[in-house]
Amino acid sequence: MRAQLEAQYTGKRIYLFTSMGQVYVGTLDAIVEDVVQLSALDRATKIYINLADVSGVRACDQPAEEHP
Question: Which of 15, 18, 59, 68 could be cross-linked to 22 through a Cys-Cys bond (beta carbons 3.0 to 4.6 Å apart)?
Fold first, then answer.
């Protein structure tokens, strides 16, 4: 999963799915150690998710201007 995230999604807006059924939307900033760092849509809030909890990822298909 780490290789896929780093190669295809760094700097892009994504939907990140977790093994607990949660879905996060944000821009993938980095993966440090085993922690995925996203910037939320407001670009000020940081979201941190353990890489082991990530169950899937998908590119966000909505243009940036449609997000608040």
Answer: 18
Q: For residue range 14-33, what is the model confidence (pLDDT) as tens digits?
A: 999 999 999 999 999 999 99
Beta strands in 1-68 (DSSP E): 13-18, 23-32, 35-39, 46-50, 54-59
Which domain range does residue 47 map to? 2-60
Below-50 pLDDT ranges, the chain: none
Tokens (6 digits) for 42: 């407001």
Instruction: Please count the CA atoms within 13 angstroms of the CA of 15 that sit on its side-chain side.
Output: 10
| CATH code, domain with 47 | 2.30.30.100
Two tokens, residue 8: 């295809």
Tokens of 64: 């940036």
- For residue 6, the surrounding DSSP H or E stretch is helix 2-8
